Amino acid sequence: MNLVLMGAPGAGKGTQGEIISERFELPEISTGSVLREAIKSGSPLGEQVKSLIAQGKLVPDEIINQVVKDRLSQADCAKGFILDGFPRTLAQAQALDAMGVTIDKVLYINVPDQVILERLGGRRVCEKCGETYHIKHQPSSAGELCEKCGGKLIIRADDKPETIRDRLATYHQSTYPVVEYYRGQGKLLEVDGTGNIEAITERTLRVLEDEE
Ligand code: AMP
Predict the structure, then answer these.
(1) Which of ligand 1's atoms lies nearest the C-alpha of 86?
(2) What are 77-132's pLDDT values in tens digits?
(3) I need a labelling partner for 182 at 20 to 30 A (CA). Which of 1, 32, 96, 142 fits?
(4) Mutation choice for ligand 1 from 6, 35, 48, CB with most ligand atoms inside 8 A
(5) Secondary structure percentages of the chain, helix, strand, coil, to 5
(6) Annotated catalytic residue 88
(7) For this structure, is 206 an active site residue?
(8) 183 is catalytic
(9) Is the overall model pTM greater than 0.85, yes or no?
(10) In which order are the strands placed within the sheet that holds 2-6?
């Protein structure tokens, strides 16, 4: 199964993606994580995208398309994959088609803007391993530190209030049309992404297992 996860920033794509990845034994490819790793390592790609990401702007299609093409050609993607954060523009969706990649299903995690603003404002991530927390809804049992690796919890560079608003606007303008693109192809599975993580996981797995 080749699956795409869609939804606004903070909709829960990363959280649900990790669970789906384990349940269906498919690699999860998060373009945001790939880019953040590149920034951390100081690679040429990282240098190229660093300031765009901090400003909450999209990385140019040509750059991200190449990143995804390289990743999907690796052996672990042969039996299927989960894409999180790509495609984010219609041009990226078309690039995927042009690569000859068939998308079977698109899981759209639907969350209203008000909920997104509250979630992103309270999001904290481990600076070392990238694990995600929320100060209210999913605090770390280790306080200011990551309960998995002991790393320091920080606010993502693009989770600042003014950047969050810009990212949401970009989502509505450039990414939501991709949801409609896949709806038109009859590939969209829609899940209510409000409520706690367990409830959303239950709905998500039910929808995906119905498809199996
Ligand atoms: P995410 O972790 O998915 O929220 O991605 C973080 C940031 O990485 C985004 O705000 C963009 O700057 C960049 N990014 C990730 N995926 C894409 C993509 N498919 N197209 C363009 N930029 C992307």
Answers:
(1) 19
(2) 999 999 999 999 999 999 999 999 999 999 999 999 999 999 999 999 999 999 99
(3) 32
(4) 35
(5) 50, 15, 30
(6) yes
(7) no
(8) no
(9) yes
(10) 28-30, 81-84, 2-6, 105-110, 188-192
